[in-house]
Amino acid sequence: MKIYNYLKETFDKKGAAYLILIDPDKLKLNNAEKFMQKCEESGVDGFLVGGSLMLMGDFENYILELKKISKLPLIIFPGALSQISPNADALLYISVVSGRNPEYLFGNHVIAAPLIKKYQLETLSTGYMIIESGKRTTAEYMSGSQPIPRNKTEIAIATALAAQYMGMKFVYLEAGSGAESSVPYEMVKGVSDYCDIDIIVGGGIRTPEAASKMVKSGANIIVTGNHFEDENNWEVLKQFADAVHYKKSIVV
Ligand code: 1GP
């Protein structure tokens, strides 16, 4: 429960948490130190590592090397069974609840469970909801599932509520990495107003203003990935973190 408690404390203290998604195919190890240090200095709360599709081979070594660089939590965001490592701090135990593909709903979880126990990895059970965002996304294609239509907030609400009743800790409203359109604010607000489950939002968030609006709509965790794969954008990392940490800017 260490990472779960850390995230809950972050919500209490700062309003919401800001996580950076690291795609091992994009961030080479020789550039990782510079990037992760910049994230730390800017107020990022932790890292997700993984992806729906990964071409690089040695995931375990990659995690081990990242762990040496940063003290911030490193949470695996697994796109496949090969993305499990004892060297991470936790693993998002994601079930693609927006889809009806049994392997991504529960099948892979059964295969992974004994290994997770052996590694004593903390699991953060998460209902993963893929939301329509323009073009088809890798997550959608790889999970063999249809996204929730972006104008169907009621489906998102009912799905999130079901995840809550199943005892999951989070729902992840995912527009997909590099999405044309991020998850609609009204959908985040609808889920937040109606459900008592913590909400992660990611995909296509490219400005601090958008991050701030997501948090104001009810998101507890904001994830960005693509935007910071371009080193020219690193200077605005702090603005993103500050936008997410709305409580910190309140002077008491
Ligand atoms: C993808 O939600 C994450 O799973 C991040 O998306 O790369 O578009 O920021 P971006």
Secondary-structure map with pairings?
Layout: H1 2-14, E1 17-22, H2 29-42, E2 46-49, H3 59-69, E3 74-76, E4 90-95, H4 102-119, E5 122-130, H5 138-143, H6 153-165, E6 170-174, H7 185-194, E7 198-202, H8 208-217, E8 221-224, H9 237-244
Parallel strand pairs: 1-2, 1-8, 2-3, 3-4, 4-5, 5-6, 6-7, 7-8
This protein binds SN-glycerol-1-phosphate.
**Which residues form runs of ≥5 with pLDDT under 50?**
none
CATH homology group: FMN-linked oxidoreductases
Q: What's the total number of strands?
A: 8
The 3D shape can be described as globular
* Broad structural category: alpha/beta
How would you state the average pLDDT, rounded?
Answer: 95
C-alpha Rg (nearest Å): 17 Å
Element-by-element helix/strand order: HEHEHEEHEHHEHEHEH
CATH architecture label name: Alpha-Beta Barrel
Structural features, described:
This protein has 9 helices and 8 strands. The protein is α/β, with parallel strands linked by helices and 252 residues long. It has one domain: FMN-linked oxidoreductases (TIM Barrel). It starts with a helix and ends in an 8-residue tail after the last helix. 44% of the residues are buried. The chain binds SN-glycerol-1-phosphate. The site of SN-glycerol-1-phosphate has 14 residues, from strand 8. SN-glycerol-1-phosphate binds at residues 21, 174, 177-179, 202-205, 223-227.
